[in-house]
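Recall the central idea of this unit: under ordinary conditions, the amino acid sequence of a chain determines the structure it adopts. In this exercise we apply that idea directly, starting from the sequence alone.
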Amino acid sequence: MEAYKQEFIEFMVDSQVLKFGDFTLKSGRKSPFFMNAGGYVTGSQLRKLGEYYAKAIHECYGDDFDVLFGPAYKGIPISVVTAVAYSQLYGKEVRYCSDRKEEKDHGADKGGFLGTKLQDGDRVIMIEDVTTSGKSMEETVPKVKGAADVKILGLMVSLNRMEVGQGGQMSALDEIRERYGFETNAIVTMAEVTEYLYNRPYKGKVYIDDTLKGAIDAYYEQYGVK
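Accordingly, the structure predicted from this sequence is:
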């Protein structure tokens, strides 16, 4: 496994963003693990998060894009810190854009978006924290494509949960790629997280022991891609 992936797994654990236990997801599924990007709250955490996203995007998509689009709400700070990191790491200025849950009907920036105005010809990379079912893209993709004649190059998430999407046949990320025709990638997959943390002490604690590994395996037996 690449060093930056190992570092990112440790970063998620240190930031208490990746947790293990018994959780009920938005989809209603009972999960033995939970990832919440809202847990990145300090300046140093957000700086590092933006750097990890920037490195992953650079590796997967190169520099030929114009806009980072982060869906509201959690995608807003992620797109901002990634744009900052991209400028610092690669010397390329990219714009950020996010949608509003409710349109603003006054002021110079009224409308349904924050940040840059999407323009015809823009090449866009979508950013999310995690995709469980892929349902969020049903709302976001039409908004982005309806704003201007843009090309969506891909989606980058921090963690690929590796479970079936709404169709029940393929992973949520694969489902998005099939449906919308753009690439989907993640900084790390849950398989990589499990492989790295299973029975491996980290700072004096084993986060995934035999019992939790059994719960994760059972979860994927029910919700994982066959």
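DSSP finds seven helices and ten strands in the chain.
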